[in-house]
Amino acid sequence: MAQPLLSRIAVALSLAVFVTTQADAAKPSETLLPNTTKAYISVPDVDKLREHFDQTQFGLLLNDPVMQPFVEDVKGQIRDKLSEASVRLGLSWDDLEGVYGGEVAMALLQPWDHEVAAATLEAAAIEAAAQAKADGKNAKDAEAAIAVAVEKVQKMLDAERRQQRAVAMLVDVTGHLPQANELLAKVAQNHLGKGAVQSSIEIEGVTIAVFTQPKKQEEATARTSFYCIHEDQLVSADRQDVMASILAKFKAPGTDDLKDFEPYAKAMNYSQTAMQGTAAHLRYFLEPFGFAEVKRAYSGGRKRRGTDLLRVLQNQGFTAVQGIGGQISLKTEEHDIRHHTLVYAPAVKRKPGDLAVTKYDLATRMLEFPNQADVAPMPWIPRGLATHLTFNWKMKEAFWYAESLVNEFAGDEVFKDVIENIQFDPHGPQIDIKKEFTDHLGERATVISDYRLPITPKSERLLFAIEVTNPETVMRTVNKAMENDPAAKKREHNGHVIWELLNEEAEVAEVLIEGFDGGFGFGDAPVEEEEKEKPFIPNSAVTVANGHLLIATHVDYIVDVLEPAPPADPLSAAADFQAVTDALVSLGSKEDSFRLFARTDEAYRATYELLRQGKMPESESMLGKVLNAIFTSEDAEEDELREQQLDGSKLPEFQVVRRYLGPTGCFIRTVDEGWTVAGCLLTKDLK
Predict the structure, then answer these.
(1) What does 369-393 look like in DSSP terms, one character per residue?
(2) What contacts 660, CB < 8 A, 6 or more positions away?
(3) Regarding beta strands 104-109 and 166-172, do their DSSP bridges make them parallel or antiparallel, or are they unpaired?
(4) What does the pLDDT read at residue 92?
(5) For labelling alongside 606, which of 60, 195, 228, 646 has CA 20 to 30 A away?
(6) DSSP conformation class of 55
(7) Cα–Cα distance between 111 and 293 in angstroms, integer?
(8) Nearest to 618, CA basis, from 637, 603, 640, 633
């Protein structure tokens, strides 16, 4: 009896609050969201997106009957994740079925009033100046006192800003008002069923339904959700000020909306032009550092101790990357998937008197990737591989630009000490890093990968090839570095000396640097004596050959590369490589800084097989490490092995899946405003 009554009350309340007049057309979400949006996804037409996705190879794969047991398991996992993430709004994508009449958009925001913050800083400066005058300070001391006061307030404001977070959803419900009101009645019922208190407020003349959840012990404030339908838009947010900001833009869009936010506008303009009339099924935008801060704030703040990599990168100037945005189209006439992105990172604006000539500051100066016309694979690259990435990089300069990054990450001025110890320590290799190594670095690098059978967590093989201008000198340097290393084993193959580093078996001597305890300012780590830090790459091998410094995860990969390849069988002659190259040229590839080619069936196989074996968290493949990072919670211990969340035993044999996985590629071009990225995925039959 109680539940039907609750349902009727919810319906009555929601209908009273949500029914509104119907406007001619719903406004685009980019004109309603503020420029404090840090992550944004917009689907102009959900039905079109689904229709085209189902025609892609991935869509066909997921609809294959042999995949259904696994797909259902994944859907359940996604529903669980979505229910956790969308509890603040009480809405999920499944709920929107039959409700949307146009665009659906989701956004993460970091609400912040820059004018108020600026006024606060100005007030702090005025107060400090008045205090300095009252204390009788001279001009120099007064200026210093003002600077200290402003810096203190700035740090306080930064800390406050990093805690701000909000989520918003906008749905064009044109022609679907009855369904939209039914959905919000369901939302009301769900909230009330969980003990929420419903109330209503008025913003910009619009009545808003508000649901306040019971406050949990670990929460500073109770969670709230706000809903309304206005001018054919279903609007929902978890903060009242965000809701007010969105509703205000229905009347007066202003200049502080997402559409006019320079990084977003630049990204959309570029990608729209690059699509050349091809309809986009999805648009996206990300302000990387703001997104990371919002994500961290929603998870309760940073929990791991030690150096905060996010803060280090921000301090080192990587905030030059102001936004990443673009568009994706599914199942076009030529491509299975097509995408265009702009990484918006314009040059630093120099103040008067700043004589620096580099595009960026501090460690961000490392990001110098010149464009070149020749990005063809080196003739010695083996044809049978999973991925091939080649790029141009000013590595000689980048090595030394890393100094400030290394020092801040270590918490001490260690970079020069390490370089000097390598050169002058009588017990060390006594290598002049500049003269014997970095002066001989070229500007071209290549990364290739494949895997060994049977599939294990260590099956993926990676090889890094760095162009060198003086191979003999660099090889002598490698020999000097390795000869006294107890973890290094000397091997020879086809006249080449190869050094294999057996980090898993050999005990490596500990190098101590004065003033650096390895704990990054937190003292000695409380670990047992026999524990050793697990290396990122357990074993590796290095040599110099073919005009390149070769560094591989497996010594046998270098051996394979050193085997002479048949002259008529290079990677560039492979049909799939040629097809991807032609497709990239049609997308505008000409003079680029990066070029990627991948056979997705080969690139995904190791991860797929480990998923089937239930060993995905143990994966040492690049894709596996990325997925493990995504699915590992921030409060987990760094070396803690997460539990696999998906039941891989439900997956079919890989040979069943392989036929759905075609080749892919992309190219990156350095431009004045950062980097453009364009690429595509082709079908397996290369049509």
Answers:
(1) ---BS--PPPTTS-SS-SEEEEEE-
(2) 57, 58, 60, 61, 64, 684
(3) antiparallel
(4) 72
(5) 60
(6) H
(7) 12
(8) 640
Euclidean distance between CA atoms 546 and 56, whole angstroms: 40
Helix axes 114-134, 139-162, angle to 10 degrees: 150
Helix segments in 429-524, DSSP class H = 433-436, 471-483
C-alpha triplet 650, 654, 655: angle, nearest 5°: 130
Helix axes 600-613, 622-631, angle to 10 degrees: 50
279 contacts: CB under 8 Å, gap ≥ 6? 48, 329
Tokens standing for 92?
């999920």
CA distances, 275 to each of 283, 350, 528, 668 (Å): 12, 34, 57, 15
CA–CA separation, 388 vs 379, rounded Å? 13
Token pair of 19, please?
């029914």
What distance in Å separates the CA atoms of residue 99 and residue 92, rounded to the nearest whole number? 12
Residues of the chain with confidence (pLDDT) below 50: 1-23, 82-85, 505-537, 687
**What is the rounded distance in angstroms from the CA atom of residue 226 to the CA atom of residue 61?**
39
Residue 282 DSSP one-character state = E
**Contact assessment for residue 155 and residue 101, using Cβ atoms and an 8 Å cutoff:** no
d(CA 127, CA 129): 5
3-state secondary structure of 486: coil
Query: Which residues lie across from 329 on neighbouring strands?
Result: 338
SS3 percent helix, strand, coil of the chain, rounded to 5, is 40, 20, 35
End-to-end CA distance of the chain: 61
DSSP per residue, 408-446 = HHHTSS-HHHHHHHHHH-TTS----HHHHTGGGEEEEEE
Residue 47 in 3-state DSSP? helix
pLDDT of residue 635: 53
- Residue of 407, 411, 405, 216 lying closest to 305 (CA atoms): 411
CB 30 within 8 A of CB 247: no
**CB neighbours of 357 closer than 8 A, spacing ≥ 6?**
none
Secondary structure element (H or E) that encloses residue 183, with its range: helix 177-193
Of 55, 206, 123, 62, the C-alpha closest to 651 is 62
Tokens of 420: 């000097």
The residues that bridge with 468 in the sheet, in sequence order, are 441
Token duo for residue 256: 């502080």
Distance, in Å, from the CA atom of 98 to the CA atom of 114, rounded to the nearest integer, reads 39
- CA gyration radius, the chain: 28
Residue pair 49/282 in contact (Cβ under 8 Å)? The answer is yes
Cβ atoms within 10 Å of 95's Cβ, excluding its own = 18
What does the alpha-carbon distance between residue 80 and residue 87 come to, in Å, rounded to a whole number?
A: 11
d(CA 211, CA 13): 12
Residues linked to residue 552 through DSSP beta bridges, in sequence order: 463, 541
648, 612 contact by CB (below 8 A): yes
Total H helices, total E strands in the chain: 22, 20
* DSSP letters spanning 292-357: HHHHHHHTTS----S--HHHHHHHTTGGG--EEEEEEEES-SS-SEEEEEEEE-PPP-PPTT----
What is the sign of the dihedral through the CA atoms of 169, 174, 179 and 180? Answer: positive
Distance of alpha carbon 537 from alpha carbon 526, whole angstroms:
24
Q: Residue 510 has what DSSP assignment?
A: P
Residue ranges per domain, the chain?
Answer: 2-112+164-260, 114-162, 288-321+345-524+533-635+644-681
Residue 225's DSSP bridge partners are 211
Contacts of 102 (CB under 8 A, 6+ apart): 26, 44, 45, 172, 174
Residue whose entry in the numeric block shows the structure tokens 């369904």: 179
The Cα angle at residue 528 between residues 526 and 529, in degrees rounded to 5: 120
Distance CA 598, CA 447 (A): 11
